[in-house]
Amino acid sequence: MRRSTIERVTRAGGPDAAALRRAGRRAAGRRGMVAVVAMLYMLLLTTLALAMYAVANTNVQTSANFADIDRAQSAAEGGLRWIDSRFQTINRPTSDKGTITATSANTLWPALRDAVKADLTSIKGIGGAFITVKYSTAGDTLTATGLCLDAAEGSTCDVILQQLPAGPGWWLGPNGVQASVDQRYIKVTCVGHYRRAARAVSMVFQMDKKVKFAVVGKVPIQLGINTIVDGPVGMSTAIKYPPVYVMSDFPHLNATLKTKIDNFNNYLEGVGTVGGKTINNHKGYDNRISVNNSDEFTLATAAGYKDVNGDAFIDEYDLFFEQYDTNKDKVITKAEFTNPATGKLYDEQLFTTIDRLSPPMDNEDVNKNGVFDAGEFDLNGDGLPQWEDKRSGYDDGQLDIRDPYAKIKGSLTMSTSVAAWNANLAPSGLNVYDEIRGPIASTDPTQPAVKFDATTKDVFDTAPINFEQTALLYKAKTGAGGGAQLVNMTSTPPVIENKVLAAGDANGGAPVPERTPYGSTSWQATISRPKFVGIKFKNVQIPKGLNALFDNCTFTGVTFVDTTRDIVKVGTTTVTTDKTDGMNWAKRMKPTTTVFANTTTLTATNSSGYTDGNNLRFNDCTFEGPLVAPYATAYTHFANSWEFTGATYFNNKVDPTATIIAPQTNMEMGSFTNPAAAPSTLLGVVVAGNIDIRGSTTIDGSIIVTGDGAGNTTLGYFGNNDAETNPGAMPEGGYGKIYLRYNPFRPMPDGVVLPIDMKPVLDSYREGFVVR
């Protein structure tokens, strides 16, 4: 057996044997160091592992905390949006005040608070239990806890409502000046919870009262060629068809363009395939495809359609641009839009209307007198009326991306359903798409542009009786209520003030017989009219039975047109609200055995409808104050009817809240033959039993159609026959233009009973609690 070198030398007893034995002992003594070093490394690695675990665990916990906080934040923001939505749907308290002030808000707050409380107590939270709603007199605070918007996620939200006292706000107004608040303002704080995380957001809402529609009514609404509505449109009757009829503004310009638009509308109704799935080419009835809808945009692009003007939508306006933007620079100049055969613009009225969309809006000094009057409120407390800046591209003689065209810029809301409307159209072979043309651009991305199955909470009640008190308040300001009577027929111009007019005041010679509606080929009656010419009136009453013609007159103060309130069914004493009974009431003759005929000139001698009603025509007149008529129980067609011909101008210098208040009066505005020759301007709210406008008209305010006796409300030219709708009618001188713009800054008149609104003050949004 082979021995080691040390063992052999040691046994031999050589000179180095002792040294070698010592070295062996030292080597044997160091064998434990390897284990020590290994253990040190193990300890170090264990420590590092523990440290890394601790750091990783902390990161995981931190990440989880951030995730929890994010979910709590989302719950808080979701709660705020949810409360905003509930504000629009709860049974809000009503008010007859045109403008909500701090004083009236104080009386409305308890009812509003109770309505919110009643609404929230019907909401269930996690686990199916109703959320807890408490009211505390300390701070007049309503608190709801446990609101759950996403049961699967498990987050909840608490909602706190509190009416603010008068004082400074915590946000800046439009001009960088600190806002001021009062009892009209309600602070809503939402605290989101997820596990142990909590986040709070708050926003202030203001009690307000607005129409919120550019045009709204009970009868079908027709929008013709060159008629553009800048604001929401609503029709509240579910069983009248078509509830709206909207015509395109472009097919009449060019036969090739008409074919392209027809093809595009047919395309919207079709279906296509994307990624192996079949989808509608377009969903909805707004007639525009968003470039952000990848599936629809893919199909439209494949079909050859594109966003020509660069507004992020594909609609018939792009086809119009493609037709007339000959150099493809995304601008249509007047030269490009000029007909080479005539040397004139293809449609000057349309070009001008689009170029002048969204004019600067006076948002505080409503009557433009430079100071704050009754009904005008300083929004930011700086004492200065606010004006919008003129938008870029306004009235610059060319059309481009800066001119925000849409047939309706706002929502289109109807009480009928798509199925019911299509069923009504089935015999004609048409469908809903065929009766809504042109792009409809919703201004609220959370709401559809076209809404069906609307309820009374979507479209407010336009019952005529809701406006009776308003008319009576105005009546008190006329006649003797306006002051001392003044009649001076020798001055220039002649003056009549604070008087109940009579036929003897007429200065235009013998009465003139006129067919009404004036210029229509389907007139309803012939009226004998005393004629007033060139007179300046102030605070006058036009008594029932006058049936006058006012030519080139000016009306200042309030003008009240009287008529009969209670319309009775012929042969009875029963008061009626039926339109057919109203027509028969208007046709009553003297003696009763006489048969009514529209060719017979009606006078006080032969017609009871003549003496009990008021059929008036205003030609080339200016109104510098409200024009008002009282409530009547039924729509009487021609017996209570006003016509505005020639150039009509409403410039309310007395009361900015209303232009016309006539809840059961029929109105005809413009020309049946040449709309372009009948310009008119209306500033403020217009309340009418029905109104048809054919002319070049600008309306800054709202149209409220309260009656249900007319066939439709016509805005635009549909022919010279008042009894028919002819979409292909070509008037002399062109279609004219109608631009109807909803003005949210115009207050309503007193006396109209409507629910209040809760308007969010966006600048007041804050994260975390705001202490006052």
Tell me what the structure shows.
This protein is α/β, with parallel strands linked by helices and 772 residues long. 22% of the residues lie in helices and 28% in strands. The strands form eleven sheets. The chain has a 22-stranded mixed β-sheet that branches. It has a six-stranded antiparallel β-sheet with strand order 2-3-4-7-8-48. A hairpin with an 8-residue loop joins strand 28 (512-516) and strand 29. The radius of gyration is 37 Å and the shape is globular.
Quick gist of this model?
The chain has 772 residues and is of the alpha/beta class. It contains 13 helices and 48 strands.
Keywords:
772 residues, globular, six-stranded antiparallel β-sheet, 13 helices, disordered N terminus, 22-stranded mixed β-sheet, alpha/beta, 48 strands
Distance, first to last CA: 101 Å
Show unreliable segments: 1-6
Question: What share of residues are in beta strands?
Answer: 25-35%
Number of strands: 48
With helices defined by DSSP (H or I, 4 residues minimum), what is the helix count? Answer: 13
- Give helix % range: 10-25%
Record the SSE blueprint.
Elements: H1 5-12, H2 17-29, H3 33-89, E1 94-95, H4 102-120, E2 132-136, E3 141-150, E4 155-163, E5 167-172, E6 178-181, E7 185-194, E8 197-208, E9 215-217, E10 221-223, E11 227-230, E12 233-235, E13 244-246, H5 255-269, E14 271-274, E15 277-280, E16 289-290, H6 294-302, E17 313-314, H7 316-324, E18 332-333, E19 338-339, E20 344-345, H8 348-355, E21 398-399, E22 408-409, E23 412-414, H9 418-425, H10 432-435, E24 440-441, E25 450-451, H11 468-475, E26 486-488, E27 495-497, E28 512-516, E29 525-529, E30 531-533, E31 536-538, E32 541-542, E33 549-551, E34 554-556, E35 559-561, H12 579-586, E36 601-602, H13 608-612, E37 614-619, E38 622-623, E39 627-628, E40 640-645, E41 648-650, E42 658-670, E43 679-694, E44 696-705, E45 713-715, E46 737-741, E47 754-755, E48 757-767
Parallel strand pairs: 9-12, 9-44, 10-13, 10-45, 11-46, 12-23, 22-24, 23-25, 27-31, 29-36, 30-33, 31-34, 32-35, 33-37, 34-38, 35-39, 37-40, 38-41, 39-42, 40-42, 41-43, 42-43, 43-44, 44-46
Antiparallel strand pairs: 1-47, 2-3, 3-4, 4-7, 5-6, 7-8, 8-48, 14-15, 16-17, 18-21, 19-20, 26-27, 28-29
Helix pairs in contact: 1-2, 5-7
